[in-house]
Structures are given as structure tokens and as C-alpha cells.
Amino acid sequence: MEDYGDELLDATTSISRLTRMLRRTKLSERACAEAGITLDRIGLQILGHVRKAEQPPSVKELAESMQVEGPHATRQVHRLVTRGLIEKTVDPDDRRVARLTLTAEGIELIDRYHAVIKGWMRDAVADWPAEDKRQVCTLVKRWVDDIETYFDELDSRPFPRPAQRPAG
Questions:
Q1: Which of 86, 123, 158, 163 has its CA 20 to 30 Å from the CA of residue 43?
Q2: CA 60, CA 127: separation in Å to the nearest integer?
Q3: Partners of 90 in beta bridges
Q4: Which residues contact 62 (CB under 8 A, 6 or more apart)?
Q5: Closest Cα partner for 61 from 74, 44, 78?
Q6: What positions does the domain HTH marR-type occupy (predicted)?
Q7: Residue-level pLDDT at 168
């Protein structure tokens, strides 16, 4: 059995580089300018998270998925509600919880932003064969899904006890 640990670690490093590139302020500002949007990066990230969510998240769920503190998420969401990009609706199962949905304007704005980013990504690999593009997209998604499943399972296990050092 071959050990692909080094190659997988290199691929992980490459994905981290891509994530950092996509989070660069100048890239975000350029995409906003091209899409005709005036919104900061955190606002775009919130709209993106809400847009991709399978069901409307609560502010707490949004904060957890973005790995930010609850009060920070609450302030940012309030700004987006005030701007008319997000709506809060009452959770029918727990009236104390507000669920977040994008307004039509919020959907249109984040879709325009994503269209610019997707266009750049398409342009970057324009000379790749179509089958290579399909394969890399399929395999990266599968790889990340499998790692996420494995890590979620790993997180559910108790931590191992540290090995005892011999006295001496």
C-alpha cells in the first residue's frame, strides 16, 4: 500500500493558499468594483454563507460556521438587515430564534459577486481540457467531503490520554 501522505499534505497546502487568495482584501475589492457592489468582505461572507445554507441559519449557527464570535456576527447581520440585504424571520419551532434569509436584493448582489469570481476561475483554467476541469472539481469536492466526515467523526471521540513518561 502506497503512502500518499506527502502529496495529500501538499494538496491541503494548495487549498489553503487558494482560500487565502480568495480572502484577500484587494481581490474582494476588485470583484466588488467589477460587480458594481459596495459591501465589505465580512458582509459578502455572511451573504455567501446564508445563500449556500441548506436552510435559513440562525445568527448563532452563522457565527459557528464562520468561526466568529456571536456578538460580532449579530452586529454584522444587523448592518445587512438595515441595508435590506437580509431578513430575519421567526423560527416556527422556537419563537426565540431568528432565522436569516436573503432578500431579493441580497440574492442578486451575492450572485453578481460570485459570477465575477467564477468568471475569473474559469479564465484561469481556460486552456485546460474540459475533462480535467470536471475531474478536479469532482475529486476536490469528494476529497473535502470525506475529510470533513472523517474529522467530524474524529471530533466525536474522546481525547486519548497522554503517554506516561517513565520516572527517572
A1: 123
A2: 43
A3: 98
A4: 46, 49, 50, 73, 77, 100
A5: 74
A6: 8-145
A7: 60
